[in-house]
Amino acid sequence: MSIVQDLRYSLRRLRNSPGFATTAVLTLALGMGAATAMYSVIQAVLLNSLPFPHPEKLLIFRESEKGQGMSVAWPNFEDLRAQQRSFEDFAAYQGKTIQYFDGEHTTLPAAMQCTSEFFPLLGAKAEMGRVFTGSEDKPGAPAVVVLSHKFWQNQLHADPNIVGKAINLSGKLYTVLGVMPPEFHFWLGQPEEVYLPLGPEAADSDFNKRTAHGSMSILARPKPNVSEAAARTELESIATRLAAEYPATNGGHSVIMSRLVDDYFTKIRPILWMLMGAVAIVLLVGCANVSNLLLTRGADREREYAIRTALGASGYRIFQQSIGESLWLALGAGVAGIAIAYLSLPFLLRLGPQNIPRLGETGIHWPVLAFAIAVILIVSLICGALPGWATLSVAPEQALRCHSTSSYAGRGRQRVRSSLLVAGVAITVVLSAGTGLLLQSLRRTLAVDPGFQPEHRLALQVVLTGDKYQAAAVRQSFFLAAEDKLRTLPGVADLGIVCTPPLAGECGDYFYSIPGQTDSNAASLPVADFNLADENYFRVAGIRLLSGRAFLATDNLSSPHVAIINEAFARKWWPEGNAVGHTVLFGGRGEARDLLQIVGVVRDVKQWGLDAEVDPEIFFPLKQRHPNWIVLMVRTAGAPESIAKSAEAAIQSIDKEVPIHMHPMNYYLAHTLRQRQFLTLLFSIFAGLAIFLAALGIFGVAAYAVASRRAEIAVRIALGAPPASVKLWISAQMVRRVAIGCAIGVGGSLLSARLLRDLLYDVSPADPLVLSGTCVLLIAVALLATWIPARRAASVDPMQALRAE
User: Fold this and answer.
1) Full-model pTM
2) pLDDT in the model for residue 743
C-alpha cells in the first residue's frame, strides 16, 4: 500500500514541475527510442529462430585445399554421403540460374537445386502437394519442381490447382509437385523461390567430374550422440582416403566445417552489437543527465526530507519515493521512445542495405516491447538510485540547521555531480571518436579511384538459359546480334561486352600455374579471378592499358589462346619485369589445362568494392569462351537512363523471353558504399544524440553551479571582478571537467579501437586527427553550453544576492 501512495505522491510532484519532467522525459526518450529501434533490428536479424527445428545443430561443409575453402564436387559428395556414419541427414545444395516466362514478362527467380534429403533434414513439409523424393532426384527422372509460397502467390496468382500442372522454366516444362509454407526459406538474404532436384545434373559428364567445383555445399545434421568435432573428424578421414585414392584431383583436399547460424550471421553480428553498444552509450549519457537533474532536485528538497525523517519517516520510504519519481520519468520516456522507434524504423530500413538477412522482418513486436519494459525498469533504477542514496547520506540535523541549499550542499554531492558529468563526456568521446573514424574512412573510400570511368555508362546484363541456348554458337550469335542492335540506337556512343562489370564481383575464380615458377602438379595451386571481355570493353569502360595490346577481333577459337591480366597479377609474378609474352597454365590438377599467352596488362579495377583489395584477375577473349550471360557495357552520349527503354526493346526484339537487368554504372558505385554509408549514418545519429545530451548535462551542471554559488559570485563581483572574468571562471570550471572526461574518453577510444578495426579503410584506429578533433568539438560544445549560465553569473547583482543570502 505504501508503494501505491509513494507512486501517487511522486506523480503529483512531477505534475507540479512540468518543466523538469518534460526535460527529463525527452532526455531519456531519445536514448530509449534509439535503443528500442536498434533492438528491434537485432531481434529480427539475430534473435529470431531460423524457420526450421534446432538450427543450431545444422552444419555446412565445403571442400578445402590447404585450408582454402571451395565448393564440393558432385562425385566427392556422393562418396562422403555413402561412407559417413555420423549424420542423420546429409544433403547437397547449390544455386541455379533459370528464367520464368509468364507469356509477357521474363524474370530470374532465385532457384535452388538440392538433393532429396534437403527437406527432411530441415523438417520441412509442403503446404500443398509434396516435396520430391529420391526417385525424382537422379539422372533421367522427370522434370519436377517445388515452389515457394511467394512464387506461387506472385507469379502464379495463388492458383489452388497448381499441383500437377506444368510451368515453363528456361524453355523446359516442369511438373509442380508442391508449394512450401510461407515461413519456409533457407537463404535469408534472397529467399529461394523454386526448388529443383540436383541429382539429374549428374547426367552431364562435366558436372560428374571431381574437378568440377561449381557452387555446391553440404548441409548436414549430426546424430544426437555425435559431437561436432567427431563429425568433422570422420569427414576429414573420408576426404583423406579420397585424396589417396584420387591423388590427381583430390590430393591435399580435406573438408572445412561451419555452423549454419555462423555462416549466416558471422559478418553482421558484430556490427549490429556494436551499434547496440553505441545506443547504450546514448542511453547512459541520458541517464547520467537525468541523475544529475534528480540529484539537483533532491538537494532542493533536503530540508523537506529532513523534516519527514524527524517526524518518523524511514529512510526506505524516502528512497522508495526517489525510485518512484524516476520510474514515472522512465515510463513516460519509454512510451515516447517506443513512439520514436516506431516512427523512425521505416525511414532507417529504407536507407539500410537490403542484403542483411531478415531485415525486412523488423518491427515493434512483443519481444521488442518486453525489451522496452526491461529498459524502463533498469533506467528507473539507474536514475533514481544515486539521488536517493545522496538524500539519505545527509543527516537531518545538518539540513535543518542550514538556511539554504548552498550552505549544506557538501563537497560529496558536488563531486558526484562532477563525476556524472565527466563520465557522460567520456563515453560521448568514445562514441564520437568512433564515428569520426568511420567518417574519415568513408571520405577515404569516396576518394578511391575505381580504375574505370562510371559516368555515362549503362550496364545491360543478358542471361541465356535453357536448351534453346545450350549450343555455344547460338549464344555467341545472340550476343553479336544484340550488340549490332544497340549500336544503331540514338544516344549510344560506344559499346563493349564483359562477363562481370566493375564493382559487381567476379565472373568466377579458378586454379592456375605459372610455367617455370610454380609446380603445376603441386597439392595447392594459386587461384585467380577470371573475366571475359571483347575487343572493345577496356576502351568503353575507360580502363587504361598499361602494356601490350587489347584483345583483337581475330582472337577467336581458331587463333592461339591469349589473356590480359591486371596489375595485381603482374606484380605478383613479375614484380620487376614486363609480364607481356609470358604464359599462364589455366586449370586445376587432373584436368585438361589451357595454355594462355599474356598479350596485355590493364590497370587494376575494383571488382568487389571501393574498400576491397584488388585480387589477381585474368581476362579471356569473349570469342574464345562462350558464357551463358554477358553484360553489354554502353557508353552513352547523355544520361544512361535515357536509352534504357529503347535498349531493352532492341534486345527483346531478338527474343522476348530473354531476361534483361540494367543499371547505370553509378548504381554499382553507390551500391558498394551503401553498407558503409548506412553504418556511418547510424553512428553519426547516435553520436549526435550523445553530444546533444552531453551538452544538456553540461548546461544543467553549469546552471546549478551558478544558482548554488550565487553568494560567492556576488562577493567576487563586489570585490571588483569584471563580468568577463566571472564568465571565464564559470566556463573554465566546466571546461576543466570536460577536459578530464575527454582524456578518459580518449583512453577508452584507444582500448576499444580493435572493435572498429575491421570497419575502417585506410585509417588508423588511433588517428590523432580524429581523436584531437573529437576533444576540440566537445570542448567547443561545453563552451557553448555554459555561455548562458556564465552570462547569467556575470549579471548577478551583488547587493540583491547578498541581501537574500
Assistant:
1) 0.82
2) 93
